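Example for tutorial group B:
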């Protein structure tokens, strides 16, 4: 799907706040509310917008602690990687999981109400995934920035 300037503006605006009304978006991008709705529907159908989500304050819902985990595996066998990816994707405490280059094979962002919950998760990880060689944990002491926004340039880049 080729994105024009209106699409790019809308993508930036809905990433900032997906709860904005069509009327508000229309006013900001100089289109009609129905044109905004059509464009957003097309962006969703094309897979550009994959879902709408709410960003919560972790402390207010009992998830005050973030753990950044570097995970190393024993072997790069496809079936073992598939199993580990599925396991990670199924864990509610694993907020994000990245397959990466460098010393670690995966980097995880885990949120839990306390260290006991985190320790139990990591014990299950090691027990249920024998391909995991080791993991290193960093505890986030504070949050400087948290988000999933992807900056969309208003003009097409070559």
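The residue assignment follows.
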């Amino acid at each position: 799907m080729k994105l024009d300037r209106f699409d790019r503006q809308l993508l930036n605006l809905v990433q900032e706040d997906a709860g904005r009304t069509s009327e508000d978006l229309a006013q900001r991008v100089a289109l009609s509310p129905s044109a905004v709705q059509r464009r957003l529907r097309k962006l969703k159908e094309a897979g550009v917008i994959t879902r709408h989500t709410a960003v919560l304050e972790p402390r207010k819902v009992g998830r005050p602690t973030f753990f950044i985990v570097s995970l190393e595996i024993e072997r790069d066998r496809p079936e073992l990687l598939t199993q580990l990816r599925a396991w990670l994707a199924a864990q509610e405490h694993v907020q994000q999981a990245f397959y990466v280059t460098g010393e670690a094979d995966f980097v995880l962002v885990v949120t839990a109400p306390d260290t006991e919950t985190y320790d139990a998760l990591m014990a299950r990880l090691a027990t249920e995934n024998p391909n995991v060689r080791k993991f290193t944990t960093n505890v986030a002491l504070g949050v400087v920035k948290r988000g999933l926004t992807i900056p969309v340039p208003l003009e097409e880049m070559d």
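Residues 5 and 154 are 5 Å apart (CA to CA). Compare this with the pattern of hydrophobic and polar residues in the output above.
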